[in-house]
Amino acid sequence: MTTTVNPMRPAAGVPRPYHFPSFSRRQLKNGLNVWTIPVAGSTLVNVHLLVDAGAAAEDEPHGGIAALTAQLLVTGTRRLDASAFAEATERLGIEVSSESSWDSARAAFQSLPRHLDEGLGLLAEMVREPRFEAGEFERLKAERLADILQSRSDPGRLADETFLLHVYAADTPYRRLSAGSPETVETLSRDDVIDFHGTHYRPGLAHLVIAGSFDEEAVAASVERHLASWEGIGPGHRTIASHAGGVRRIVIVNRPGSVQSELRVGHIGIDRYDPRYFPAIVMSTALGGMFGSRLNRRLREELGYTYGARSGFDARRSAGVFTAAAAVQTDVTAPAISELVALLEATRTAPFGEAEITEARDFQIGIFPLRFESTGGIAAAIEPIAVYGLAEDFWQTYRDRMEAVGATEAHSAATELIRPAELLILAVGDADVIRNDVEALGIAPVEVVPAP
User: Fold this and answer.
1) Is 286 within 8 Å of 280 (Cβ atoms)?
2) 3-state class of 339 per DSSP?
3) Residue 230 pLDDT more than 70?
4) For residue 134, with 0-12 CB atoms within 10 Å meaning exposed, 13-18 middle and 19 or more buried, which class applies?
5) pLDDT band at residue 18, thresholds of 50, 70 and 90?
6) HEC string for 362-379
7) In what helix (H) or strand (E) does residue 51 lie, and over which residues does it extend?
8) Distance between first and last Cα of the chain
9) For residues 382 and 123, what is the distance between their CA atoms, to the nearest angstrom?
10) Strand intervals (E) in 151-268
């Protein structure tokens, strides 16, 4: 393996000290956990309400119900129709949002501190008494179906979707997108949304996160006023077991006429509780998580195959994927695959040097405070602690644990977590043009499948 470093590149500076803001946590009698993070002098306040109602909480025949339910929260309440709800938020100058992932659903708003109480009132209405108007349901369902079709016309999004489909076994829910598939979304009804909401949107497993400038006593009284009478506890989420879809192989998703090939190379990775989390982050950063990473230096700077290559772990409540990715010109698809696989194999046979690991570690430490420049970023930082039950000093100790990763720890992570024999090598491109060259590599059996 040959890589070069621009000798004119300036050396990185020493990361500056940073301390995550102090916060407190208490629990209401109904089980709702309330996290408050005072940020003196901030001009905004951000409030995130997290419910254990992500895609892991839905059953497979209703795939996408969690996402659709979350989206509908901002379309009105029992008291306010869509227009009146929009008028109320505009009058207060607050920005509301709602979304879901595999591991949770979130309803949130941002406002001036003086409108915090009224904002909490609207948020409580959104979550406790959503309107779920039939017309809004049909509109958002149609938008979701249209978005799936549009995403499949984008080679990058198509590669992401089909990589999941092939890297996981048929019995693993993670093999689809959290927002559902056309087959499941098409069958969803408004009654399904009402049932899902009634079952899962309960305070017993929920978290309310408030970050900004506020009076602690006034906020406590406001939370009690709007949310203490909310009752119940939901069933929570399924435990998802991640099973591999097969051993090392190449899948070409045929997209006739493509001028580029989208490449995804990887396998099942780690979950959020893995003790190798920090070594994995540093190692994957050195491999493909920053501009000077091995993948980018080789594929972009030296070979000119791509505008950028990257790699990373998607750690969830259960094991997500490890992926290396790049978009390359069609005529270099086969050599780019060969290089990508060789670079992944080299993480085991050609350990990262101290200089590579120091740069990756300093990069992660350097960008770490940037996430918390806004009250929205600070509120979002509490989410993994709340959702995954991480230690409350996670961010206070983050830098120390990152700095504890050296070349030895990174090599151990690479040896244990990058498994060449299990690689799924997926290319979205013109199979008639690239198949013969890819097969000639002789690195794995090749299968051509149609694009969904």
Assistant:
1) no
2) helix
3) yes
4) exposed
5) confident
6) HHHHHHHHHHHCCHHHHH
7) strand 45-51
8) 36
9) 19
10) 207-212, 249-254, 260-268
Note the pLDDT of residue 6: 62
Q: What is the pLDDT of residues 137-157, one digit of tens each?
A: 999 999 999 998 899 999 999
Helix, coil or strand: residue 40: coil
Query: DSSP code of 410?
Result: H
Q: Which helix (H) or strand (E) holds 311?
A: strand 309-313
Distance between CA atoms of 48 and 208, rounded to whole angstroms? 6
pLDDT of residue 17: 76
Residues in Cβ contact with 181 at an 8 Å cutoff, skipping those fewer than 6 apart: 63, 64, 148
Nearest to 238 by CA among 390, 60, 384, 382: 60
Per-residue CA distances from 182 to 144, 153, 167 (Å): 9, 15, 20
Q: Which residues of 362-393 are buried (b: 16+ CB within 10 A; e: fewer)?
A: bbbbbebbeebebbbebbbbbbbbbbbeeeee
In this prediction the pTM is 0.92
